[in-house]
């Protein structure tokens, strides 16, 4: 299904194949030879999403752009089932395995691999040909790739990256952080009330 959102309509190359249960919303370009499989969601939440040629977005994956962080996915990239790419740049020939998470402002260099359930955190830059092992976390600058058992180091790096400040414009120390976050984000998402399905 395709939806017009914020005045923009998805543009899908005639050689691309989009499953009937996939959702593509707003300022999205799907290039030649792309495959978007069942249950995938590609949504432009105020910023553009561009899939270059021969990108595969597998079942139930999410690709989301934001006002501050558009998404660009280069040619010959595989976005695995249940993977999530939010506001990131992914260069050519990258493999994002099942369940990976790539966060706002991240940049994944060419021919990198982010393996099953691994995370590329906020504003993290992976040089070309970097491998993030299964379940590990790539975080910060300079880049650190940490196993999940190094939770204290991951937490420290996350605090420095300031997810609530960068993504939502809110101070992490705000006493009612989740109240403000959900109300602000809810107002933004409510803009979908005016979406309309397009052929």
Automatic annotation (TrEMBL):
Superkingdom in the source lineage: Bacteria
Cross-referenced InterPro entries: Transf_Hexapept/Carb_Anhydrase (IPR050484), Trimer_LpxA-like_sf (IPR011004)
PANTHER family: DYNACTIN SUBUNIT P25, GAMMA CARBONIC ANHYDRASE-LIKE 1, MITOCHONDRIAL-RELATED
Designated name of the protein: Gamma carbonic anhydrase family protein
Organism: Microbacterium aquimaris
């Amino acid at each position: 299904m395709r939806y017009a959102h914020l005045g923009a309509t998805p543009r899908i190359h005639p050689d691309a194949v989009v499953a009937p249960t996939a959702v593509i919303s707003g300022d999205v370009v799907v290039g030649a030879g792309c495959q978007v499989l069942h249950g995938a969601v590609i949504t432009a939440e105020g910023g553009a999403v561009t899939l270059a040629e021969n990108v595969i977005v597998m079942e139930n994956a999410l690709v989301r752009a934001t006002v501050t962080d558009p998404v660009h996915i280069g040619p010959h990239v595989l976005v695995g089932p249940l993977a999530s790419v939010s506001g990131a740049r992914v260069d050519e020939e990258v493999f994002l395995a099942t369940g990976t998470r790539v966060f706002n402002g991240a940049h994944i260099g060419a021919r990198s691999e982010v393996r099953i359930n691994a995370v590329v955190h906020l504003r993290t830059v992976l040089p070309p040909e970097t491998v993030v092992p299964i379940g590990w976390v790539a975080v910060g600058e300079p880049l650190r790739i940490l196993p999940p058992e190094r939770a204290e180091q991951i937490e420290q790096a996350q605090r420095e990256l300031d997810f609530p400040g960068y993504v939502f414009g809110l101070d992490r120390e705000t006493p009612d952080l989740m109240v403000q976050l959900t109300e602000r984000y809810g107002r933004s998402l409510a803009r979908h009330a005016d979406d309309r399905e397009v052929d």
